[in-house]
Amino acid sequence: MTAKDTPQGRILAAIDLGSNSFHLGIARVLDGSIQPMHRMKQRVQLAEEADEAGNLHPAAIERGVECLRQFSQRLNEMRFDEIRIVATYALRQAPNRREFIRQARQILDHPVEVISGREEARLIYVGVSQNQSLPFPTLVIDIGGGSTELIIGQGHEPRQMESLNMGCVSYQSRYFSDGKISPKRMRKAILAAEQQLEKLQQRYLRQGFHATVGCSGTIKAIASIVNDGDLSLPVTLKQLEKLAKEVVECEQVEQLPFEHLADLRRKVLPSGLAILIACFRQLEIDQLEFSEHALREGVLSEMADEVLHQDVQKRTIGLLQKRYQLDRLHSERIFASASQLYHQGQLGPKTHLSWLGFASALHEIGLQINYRGIHRHGEYILTNTNLPGFTLEEQQLLAFLVRWHRKKLTGCEPPKLQLMDGEAILALLLPLRLAVLMHLGRRHHIPLPKLQVKKRTLRLNFGDNLREDDLLATDLELESQHLAELGWQLEWH
């Protein structure tokens, strides 16, 4: 795993809050590579017994919190320079996730990043591809507790990414909840997984791949069983179907003979096996090799090379601009003006400036639907589009800035984020709105005013540039009425 131009000796920590297991990885950046130092894993089964709406069960929350207490103790014993905590399917789906995140934040004193399914898939591929050579198109499969990620990529570049709502914990609850295993139940679980895979089957088969790699605990357990503990050997469909027959003959989970498996892993073995068999059949897989590396290693890799992560975000923004045929020059002018106003008004830290850049680049994305309601259309697009490199909170922030970049502010309420508080979000929105206003109609001839901020008053000094521009004066008057709804005053001269 490489990390160019990174300081030697930096200690990085990554925590993966999965639906089945929580993982802690600690590594050192040394001589341009990442050197693993410590790993911890606990099977928490956060998704177990979630209700129909996806709310986490109180017992699952307590198991997760207790695990994080143990992780915290280990982290306190070691010096680390940076930590990143990412959460996947169970927290992604849970309406009551804020309660768990609140407790996690108290224990770890760092934000929990809830990532989308496709972002999880991308990071899994980063973890695999940074640790082994993938010279040919390769399918990567990760069966988690609540979701299964399938990625086709080559080298370090993912080409197809999907996250399906099927996992070993959720399927165990649905098909094997009482511990009974029967041929009928196994067939139903496999069929359900095959139906999920129909969504991507033709697209993935057309894309094509020459090899398949599986990662994470479920596939590791299965590969270990069918090859007597030798994880270097490939897994075939014939082996999986033979294992399924043996599992069904046991009739009860507690009767499974695999003594080396922990009780929680044994419990979800039938459901994980059903999903893997479905993957083999639907995607016509010949054989699968196992990789020890997955999401946690992908997170560590991008932490080690921050430029790599930033490049992913910039590439995402650039692809959206191209896809929606946005005016890049106009967006650059908006950003230049907004960032200058942000700096003049001393509205917040420089580290937040990138969000002004992203919002400026995409503020007109709603034009693809209709000019009327452009801001609302833009919010809809950004809320429902896959944004590689962005967490769900970051996606929410970007959608908010685009939603409120112009027009009335009635009902404008900054989202509650760990990323930044409401005042910091408004500190980004204000200069963005002013910059958009000054460049309305591609009006680029007006020299930018000087901005002073005192309490909740914005003072713009145009000098002589405003005297003969009645249209701009009218726009400013209307904007002052809008900003008053947020408790801000706008003055100009």
UniProtKB/TrEMBL annotation:
According to the lineage, what is the superkingdom? Answer: Bacteria
State the species of origin. Answer: Ferrimonas sediminicola
Task: Kindly give the Gene3D superfamilies that the UniProt entry links to this protein.
Answer: 3.30.420.40, Exopolyphosphatase. Domain 2, Hypothetical protein af1432
| GO biological process entries | polyphosphate catabolic process
Q: What is this protein identified as?
A: Exopolyphosphatase
Give yes or no: UniProt keyword Translocase. Answer: no
What is the annotated quaternary arrangement, including any partners?
Homodimer.
Its taxonomic path starts at: Bacteria, Pseudomonadati, Pseudomonadota, Gammaproteobacteria, Alteromonadales
Catalysed reactions, as listed in the record: [phosphate](n) + H2O = [phosphate](n-1) + phosphate + H(+)
